[in-house]
Amino acid sequence: MSRSAVLLCLLVAACGAAPSTRVRRPRPRPLLDGRIVGGEPVDISQYPWQISLEDYGWHNCGGSVIGSTWVLTAGHCVRGTTPSELTVRAGTSTRESGGTVFDVATIIEHELHSSYTRDYDFALLEIDGSFTFGTNVQAVGLGTSELAGGTAVTITGWGTLQSGGESPVQLQAVTTSIVDRDACNDAYGGDILDTMICAGEEEGGKDSCQGDSGGPLVSGSTQYGIVSWGYGCAVEGYPGVYANVPSARSWITEKTGI
Questions:
Q1: Of the ranges 48-62, 129-143, 158-172, 237-251, which one carries the lowest mean pLDDT score?
Q2: What positions does the domain Peptidase S1 occupy (predicted)?
Q3: Which of the 8 DSSP states describes residue 76?
Q4: Do the beta carbons of residue 178 and residue 201 sit within 8 Å?
Q5: Residue 227: beta bridge partners?
Q6: Residues 153 and 236 in one domain
Q7: Does 2 reside within a domain?
C-alpha cells in the first residue's frame, strides 16, 4: 500500500472515532455582518455614536462610542484579532474616509462568548487616546431593561444594501420594531437566548446584514442591541437577532466603569 493510501486510511479512522461536539440545528445560522436593508442615507450627526471598526484600514464591523475611551461592538467582530490589526474611525458619515482614526489599545471579548450559539456576543475596545465629543461624536446611552415587543428601534451602518451588493459610501439607517421573544423563538426553533433580542418586520424587507455586525440598535439615544446574527437578511418570518445590551450591562460596568 502506498504512503498516501496509508495516510488516507488513518485520517478516515481518526475522523470516524472523534465524537462531534456540535448538535443538529433546525436551520442554518449565517451571521448578519450587517447590511442595512430597507433603510436610507443619514448623517453622522444624527447618530454620532456610530463608529467604523476597520481591519488594516478596511471597514469590517460597526460599533458604538460608549465613553471617552471605549467602544462597544460584537464579540465575533474581534475573535481571532489583535489590537494592532484594528482601528476605530469616529465622526464621519463616509465609509473609510474622514473623521478621526484611533488605534485600538485593548480588546475585551466577553468570556462566555460562543461562536456557535452566538451567546454573549459582546466585546469592548479601549482606544489609544480619547474621543473629542462634539456634533459628530457622542457617547450613546446604554439600556438597563429590555424593550417591549413592537417598540420602534433604529439600526445604523455601512453594510451592503442587498445580498452580494456593494457597501454604501454613506452611512445608512433603518427603523423597524422589536419582535417578541416568544415569536422570535418560534422562528428560530428555540435558539433565542436571554442574551439576545430580535427586531424586524413580519413581512421582511427591513433588517441588518453583511458589513455591519457590531453596530448599534437604538431607541432614541439609548442602545439596546448589537447587530449579531440571523437567517438571511430581511427574510419574511426571520427577524434579525441582536446581542441584548441590558443583559450585559453589569459586565460593561465591571470592565469599563461606565
A1: 158-172
A2: 36-257
A3: H
A4: no
A5: 242
A6: yes
A7: no
Q: Is 71:51 a contact under the CB 8 Å cutoff?
A: yes
Residue-wise pLDDT tens digits, 187-234: 999 999 999 999 987 654 444 555 578 999 999 999 999 999 876 554
- At 54 the three-state DSSP class reads strand
What's the number of domains the chain is made of? 2
- How many Cα atoms sit within 13 Å of 135 on the Cβ side? 4
Q: Where in the sequence numbering do the catalytic residues fall?
A: 76, 121, 213
**What's the domain range around 165?**
140-246
- Is the per-residue pLDDT at 65 higher than 70? yes
Q: Considering the domain boundaries, does residue 8 fall inside one?
A: no
Write out pLDDT tens, residues 169-181.
Answer: 999 998 999 999 9
| Residue 25 placed within a domain | no
Which of 92, 78, 79 minimizes the C-alpha distance to 50? Answer: 92
157 and 131 belong to one structural domain: no
